[in-house]
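**User:** I keep going back and forth on a fold encoding question. It is easy to fool oneself when nobody else works the same problem. Could you pick a protein and write out its sequence and tokenised fold? Could you put it straight underneath, so I can go through it closely?

**Assistant:**
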Amino acid sequence: MEDSRVSRRGFLVSGTVLGAGSVVGACASADAGPTPEQTEGPFYPIAEQADKDADLTLVNGRTDRATGVTVFVEGRVLDTDGNPIADAVVDVWQANAAGRYAHERDPNPAPLDPNFQGWAIISTDSEGRYGFKTVKPGAYPVEDDWSRPPHIHFKVSRRGYREVTTQMYFDGEALNDVDRILNALTQEQRTMVVARQVSEGAPFNFDVILEKA
């Protein structure tokens, strides 16, 4: 549930402070190599929107917030030697809490949420940290016998490094165990893309490792 005491500006100011290592989960390790690639999928946003800031729960010009459970995601972008990458572009997009993308090709009959931004493009700070506020995406059916678990798409880039497109999953989701895209990875790679919290309500941590070009 949305905590009204957490303001939009307050998160943008404090998010990088939390990113200093308060959360464990999909934390990057140089020994693991670059973050594994995952499919971009068919629903990368194609309709331009003015609001692509770090608060996906509130659309500029509206007063109502997005429906769903509010979550915070934060992490670092690092190179394979463990060095932070400043000014990396972190492009994220996802389904809303009902499992629907704001994309004309999404066949899911679940409702759209006019108060959900759904797409953000943000940059890392001087220590390679980023953070954003969103709602936990819903699962959605792909085929009769398969549904995708909640996940957030990431495309991370910086001049001089190989761009990576991947997906972040949430720890403890039953659908993770049967997801064909997630389980195409090795066990070590799956550990790199499943984000965790240290406690309920804490941010999910997701570090991304880029390989030098």
